[in-house]
Amino acid sequence: MATAQPARRWPRTERGQGALGIGVSILASIVGLIVLAWAILFITKGRFLKHTFERYASSTAERRVTVAGDFQLYFAPFKLKFLADGLTVTNPGWAPKPLLWESKHLEVWAAPLSFVFGDRYKIYTLVLEDGRADLEWDDGNKRNTWTFGDPNAPGKPFKLPLIKRAAITGTELHYRDPLLQIVSDIQVGTVRAQNTAVTQDITFNGDGVMRGNKFVMNGAITSPNETLAGDSGLNFRMHGTSIGNILDITGTLPGVTEIEGGRFKLFVRGPNLARLFDFIGVAVPDTRYYKLHSDLTKVGEEWRFTRMNGGFGDSDLAGRMTISMPAPENRLKIDADISSRKVDILDVGPFMGYEPNALATKGAQAAVAQTGGTPRILPDAPLRIESLKLFDAHVDYKVATVRAPHLPVSNIVLTMDLDHTLLKLSPLTMDVAGGHLASDISIDARRKPVETAYDIRLSPTPMGQLLKGFGLSESGTTGTIKARVKMTGEGDTVRDSLATSDGRIAVILPKGNFWTQYIQLSEFDVGTFVQKMFEDKLKKPVEINCGLIAFTVRDGRAAADPILIDTQKNVMLGTGGFNFKDESVDIRFRADAKKISILSGQSPVGIGGYFAAPAIRIISPELIARGAVAAGVGIAVAPLGAILAFVDPGDAKSAACGPVLSGATAAAQRTTKGEKRDDVGNGTMKKK
To answer: Is residue 268 assigned to a domain?
Structure first.
C-alpha cells in the first residue's frame, strides 16, 4: 500500500503573489472589456444603440421619444458624444402643443460624470439646427412640460445645462407661465461653425406679453475666434422695450447658459418705475420719469443689483437691491438699501397716489381734483393688493434733503417691511424745521377691508422756522409747537382710510412769543388789528401762555376738542371742525379780551371752504350785525355812542395750562381758578 504524501504547503509569499495575480487578471479583464466596449462604440459610433435609447428614454420619461435619422452615442475619447437627427419628444396630454421638443440635428459633447453626479449636466459643445421647444406650466402652475416621469407629479424648476460653446441655427423657444402671466416666443439666429472653430455670435430676438404688457427684445452672445474647447468668457448684450421702458444689459457670461459668475451692467429708463416692476409682479410707488444704472450679478438664487445710481423726476437715487426666491416658500423677496441726496417735493406726490405725469406738467396744482363739483386733494389711488400678495420686501430708504418751498424737511429715514400683505412703514422719521417727526404707519391688507393705523408724533419744533414761509417772522418768535396724530381707518386708498378714521389729533403750543409780519394770527380782534395797523405796531409779538388745537375724529369727522389758546391779552376759542369725507372745513374762532377793549370787533373769524381751497371769513355776520347796531346808535344818540358797540367788557377766563399742555380733551379743561370751562366744545359737531 502506497504511503500517503503530505500536502504541499506553498510559502506564504507565493500564496499572496497568486492572489495578487488573480486580482490583476480580473482588473485587466475589466479594463480590457471597457476598452473593447469603448472601441466598439468608437468604431460603430454607437449607432446600434438607437432603438435601445428610444425604448429606455420613452420608458423613463413616460413620453414618446424617437430619432428619425442618424444616431450616435460613444466616448471620444473621454467626452460623451450624442448625435440625433430628427429627434422628437412628446408633451404630456394636458399640454396644448403635441411636442415638447423637435430638432433637425442635435449634437452634444458632454462630461459623462455630470449625468451621474450633480444636478446640472455639463456640456462642452452644443450644435443645434432647427430646434423647437415648448416650455409651459399648466393653468394651476403645478405641472410643466419639462418634468419627466409621472405626468401628475409636481413640476420642477427649469434648469438649463451648463453649456460652454454652441453652434445654433434656426431655433425657436416658446414659454408660457400663467402665474407670472407671461407668454414669450424667442428665435435664435444662425451660428456658423467651421471645423473646431466657432464664430460665437449667438443672436436672439423675441416678443411676448407679460402681465398684459407687450414687450420686444433682442441681443447676442459673442466671443469671436474661440475654439470649441475654449474656456474664455462670452460677451453678452440684450436690449428690451415695453410701454415706454427701455432696458439694456451688457457684460460677460462664463458659458452660453451659465449666468452664475457673470458680470453685467444694467441701464433702464422710462416714464414710470412702477411699470418696470410690473413685469415681475412687484408693486412699487409710481414715479415721474426715471433712469437707473447698476452692476448686476447672480449668486445662487439671488439677483444682486449693486452700485445703483440714477434718479426719478428731479430727485437722485443710489444704493443696492437684491431680488431672490428663498426656500422653503420660494416666494419673491426684495431687499434694498437706497438713499437720495436730494428729493423734490413733487417727486414725493406719486408715492402717496398722485398722478406722476400731471405733477410733471402742472406741479402741485395737479394734486387737486374735482369730485362732485368740489375740490379734493387727498389721493384716491387704490392699494395694489393683488400685487402685494406676490412678494415680500424689506427696504431701508434715506433722504438727506427735501427741496420744497415753505417746508424745511431733511434727514428722512424710512424702514419698510412687507410680510404677506402686511405693510409697515416703521419707523418713518425726519427732521422738520429744527424739530423731529416720527411716524409708525401700518397697512394691513390681510383684513377686509384694509385697515390703516397712523401714529405720527412731532417733537417740540420752533414755530419761527416751521412757519416762516407763511408770513411768520423767525426773529423774535420763541414759541414752539408739538403734535400727535393717532388714528385708524378702513379702505384701500388714503382718502377712504381717512374718511372712515377714528382717533385724535392734537397740536400743543407751550409758552413763547409769536411774531407775525402780516396779521395777528392768534388775536382775531378786528378793532385792535386796525388800531395797531394805523399806529404802526403791527409787528409787536403775541405772548402765548399755552395753547391746544385738538380734534376728536369719529368716522372721518374731526370736531374741535378743544381749540383753546391763552395769550397775555386774550383767550382764543374755536368750534367746528373738518370732514375727511368731503374735505370740507368749518372752524370758527373768537378772541375774548382779558381786559376792557375799545374799538374791538370781537366777532368770530371763520375758516371755511375745503382742504384744497380754504377761505378765511374775517367779516362775519356777527360783525356786520354789530356794525349795524353801531350805525343805529350813532344816528340816534351821538357819534360817541357808536363806539359802545365795539367795547369788549374784558371778562375772558384765563386757561389753566396743565390740561392744555397735556393735550387733554375739552371735558378736562379748567380755568386758572379750577372751574370747569363751559366755553369750549365737547368734541362733537353736526353731521352733514
So the answer is: no
At residue 678 the predicted structure's pLDDT band, cuts being 50, 70 and 90, is confident
Look up cell 424737511; give the residue: 409
Would you tell me how many other CB atoms lie within 10 Å of the CB of residue 306?
12
Q: Which residues make Cβ contacts (< 8 Å) with residue 116, sequence separation at least 6?
A: none
Residue 620 CB coordination number (10 Å): 18
- Show Cβ contacts of residue 548 under 8 Å, excluding neighbours closer than 6 positions: 506, 507, 508, 509, 562, 563, 564, 565, 660, 661, 663, 664
**Cis amide bond preceding 328, omega within 30:** yes
The CA R_g of the chain, rounded to the nearest whole Å, is: 40
Q: Is 108 exposed, middle or buried (0-12, 13-18, 19+ CB in 10 A)?
A: buried
Residue whose C-alpha is closest to residue 102's, from 84, 115, 124: 84
Residue 274's pLDDT is 87
Pick from 354, 215, 334: nearest CA to 287: 354
Written as nine digits, the cell of 486 is: 393717532
Task: Name the residue range of residue 147's domain.
Answer: 39-258
Q: For residues 310 and 628, what is the distance between their CA atoms, to the nearest angstrom?
A: 65
CB atoms within 10 A of CB 269: 17
- In a domain, residue 639? The reply is yes
pLDDT exceeds 70 at position 6? no
How many domains does one find in the chain? 2
pLDDT tens readout for residues 157-190: 777 777 777 788 888 999 998 877 889 999 987 6
Question: Cell for 677?
Answer: 370751562
Its pTM stands at: 0.77
**β partners of residue 423:** 418, 443
Choose the final residue of a domain: 258, 281, 307: 258
Cβ–Cβ < 8 Å for 549, 620: no
Residue 359 has a CB neighbour count (10 Å cut-off) of: 23
> Residue 13: what pLDDT?
54
The grid coordinates of residue 170 equal 434656426
Amino acid in the structure at residue 512: G
57-106 pLDDT, tens per residue?
999 999 999 999 999 988 877 788 999 999 999 999 899 999 999 999 99
Residue environment code for 177-204, b if the CB has 16+ CB neighbours within 10 A, otherwise e: eeebebebebebeebebeeeebbbebbb
Structural domain includes residue 674? no
Instruction: Give the total residue count for the chain.
Output: 688
Q: Which of 258, 281, 301 is the last residue of a domain?
A: 258
Grid-cell match 388745537, residue found = 549
CA angle, corner 511, sides to 542 and 653, nearest 5?
A: 75
- The 3-state secondary structure of 531-578, one letter per residue: HHHHCCCCCCCEEEEEEEEEEEEECCEEEEEEEEEEECCEEEEEEEEE
Q: Where do runs of H (alpha helix) occur along 320-392?
A: 345-352, 356-362, 385-388
CA separation, residue 282 to residues 61, 279, 385, 449 (Å): 36, 8, 11, 21
Largest CA distance in the chain: 178
In a domain, 254, yes or no: yes
Give the chain's mean pLDDT: 79
What angle is formed at CA 137 by the lines to CA 136 and CA 138, rounded to 5 degrees? 120
pLDDT > 90 fraction of the chain, expressed in percent and rounded? 34
pLDDT of residue 225: 44
